[in-house]
Amino acid sequence: MEATDDDTLYDLESNGRGSESGISMPTSTSEESSAQRTSYQSQQSQQSHQSQQSQRSNMELQQPLHVDYILVAEFSIDKGPTMEYQYPAPISGDEHMLAELMLPDQTHRRNQDWTIFFLHKEEEETEDDPGQQPLIYVLNLVNTKRAKVKAMAICTRHSFLHIYKPILLLALEEYFKKPTQETLAEIFVAVNTMDMSCVPHLSVFERQILATSENKEMFIEKFEEMMPAAPDAAGEQAVMTPEGGTRTTYFEIGPGNQRNKLINGKLGKIRDSHEYETSVTYKGVKIPIKVPVAVMPETVGDFSLIQLITTFSTPHSQNPQPFPLHPHLTTNGPYTHPVIVLVNALLTQKRIVFLGHGRPSGEVANHVLAACYLASGGVLKGFTRHAFPYTDISKIEELLYVNGFIAGVINPMFANQARWWDVLCDIDTGRIRISPELKPPPLTDGLSFFNLNPNMGVADYVKHDTMDNAFMEDISHCISSRFGEWAVRARWRDWVLRFTRMATAFEEAVYGASALWIGHEENHVIKGHGYVWADEALKTRDLTANAARIEGWRGTRSYLTLVQESAQLYQAKPIKIVDLHHQIDRLRVLRLSHEDSEKIYMVLKHYVDDYEEINQLLCVIPETQNGIFPIAFGLFHPNQKVRFAVVELLEKISTHMAGRHFFNNMNRFQRLAYIRLKQERENSGGFSPVATEAANGVGSFSTTTTPTTAAGVPRFAAFGPTGRGGP
């Protein structure tokens, strides 16, 4: 919802930024905003606020804010939802609208409820999305006590806003006891003094590797690099504290997964490299916080993809009901799985409403956030920016101005207004409905190319199977077998990535070129790029079956964003002379001749060498796709030169910070072959050994002990934290 008036300004003393602070909400009049600013500044000048103001200003000069604003709203019988406080400065926008978002419908019927909504900062651009206004994520808690309904919200730039839930619970409890601005100032200082200085800094490839791995020690060395100082040869190091003079003693105790830290006599352990453990101290209570280290795009809060899929899969599995046919949505005919209908609607930018009548608004919001990740898979962007995790019927006019919104509501009136939405997801019944007013798409070149038309009948859908129903059976098996949230998200990421790569092949087949693929194949040492099919018949089947869905996706926000990011990612790739993903897929899918496989293995050996190049390779061999297996298979190539080349490549991977975990996952048959070939290579006098006892089940690579050089320096540290050529 976009701003209509001037933005509120506040100076460095009030928020530590010294920049404009506009929020794209409909605003009040400039006179009202001026009055609010004057009132706020006069309050801040009072003696009772001076100590808090000084403490906050000192804090903000040391580190960026974690929380930008704290809001408090109350439900008044006479006035309805009203805003009590906005700290440390008023947010430009309609206060009444903010109060309505913070106090959902029927909230007085529940003792507690959580809501999430987004605000858009103006006059700024995000680092990750140039040209886009940064989002402010708002976590809101509503409590009802002694007939009083109050809500407190934390506004943050962090998409992992769920980490603030325990703090918000304590803060709102304290505010009920002491409803003053000093209480908010105390909360503001507490959350913004949370120490995140040692959160590891990951490159785009490192973040992808960590996010797609379940290994709890992946990149654990990154945490050690962020320590204030490393231990000396005796295992002890003096560190000066900010106050000066205090001595900190650090020891590392135990190898591998028993790696602990002894700091000032206190023993701590890095339990999971996916999370950074810190704390917030509020009212003398130390609240432990786990900050996600590798946050994928479109991941907001602590939603459950399993809950979303189960909600709409269970009724369908018990009593399937046909959908009205629509080329963009029912890609498997009238009995397309409802979750596939939902993801198709998201990809083709339809208007989607999640309805949960009588349910907590927080539960509805979680379904909306899970749906955003469902279509994104951590690959695509543009869904959360146009999502409304909770909204109400009073904002329907603003909602209908947004093309392709995803909204969560609890008012049952939405179910009867089919013109307001294209797809309705009823959380209560677990059914998904397609609006009868949704018109079929026009005939396009892509559909004509494959002899399709928008008014296809059931027989046409049956003839071209997208295999989506089989995919959903696999997802259901993962859920019933309790593989966990990570496994389900990883499979959805693979599905979305496969879809985007098929779309690239589709555009090349229909239009002669694709904006999704950046490169110059004429410069490649091995020709070929993109998705790999076992044969041309399978390629034609998949492209035909997905033609309508791909045509519906082309031109959407997520498509255009991916086009921009593809160009940026290409520039970040250290290896541009070969399409690594394509060549690894050829090893996985095709029955190659010895000569063809030899070319691939030799190119990998020659061009995958330094730290970031190995990272790029690891990104295309995730654990969910058998990891290092396609490379290790080269240990059995009939050509000795190729076998030795694979040994050298595996040796490089085994000494890499993340690659060693991939190396450790080789099966025993591959490990024995690796050991035998290393011995042959040493006997031939061609190479010097590194990690000779690797992969035999008892050597250094069978644990998480860091491999070292002859001088005892960590192998990957010899070239700095970024590998060869690093600082």
Number of domains: 4
Structural class: alpha+beta
Strand percent estimate: 5-15%
- The backbone outline, from C-alpha atoms, is globular
As laid out across the biggest beta sheet, the strand order is 2-1-5-4-3
Unreliable stretches (pLDDT < 50, length at least 5) are 1-62, 229-268, 687-727
How many strand elements?
Answer: 15
- What Rg is obtained from the alpha carbons, in whole angstroms? 28 Å
- The share of residues in helices is 25-40%
- Count of DSSP-assigned helices: 26
Major sheet? 5 strands, antiparallel
Mean pLDDT: 81
Distance between the termini: 44 Å
Protein described:
The chain is an alpha+beta fold and 727 residues long. It has four domains: 12-192, no CATH class; 204-292, no CATH class; 305-479, Rossmann fold; 573-719, no CATH class. Helices cover 39% and strands 13% of the residues. It contains 26 helices and 15 strands. Strands 2-1-5-4-3 form a five-stranded antiparallel sheet. Strands 12-13-11-14-15 form a five-stranded mixed sheet. A three-stranded antiparallel sheet has the order 6-7-8, with no helix packed on it. The longest helix has 27 residues, at 485-511. It is globular and about 85 Å long. The two termini are 44 Å apart. Residues 1-58 are annotated as: Disordered. One of its GO terms (biological process) is actin cortical patch localization.
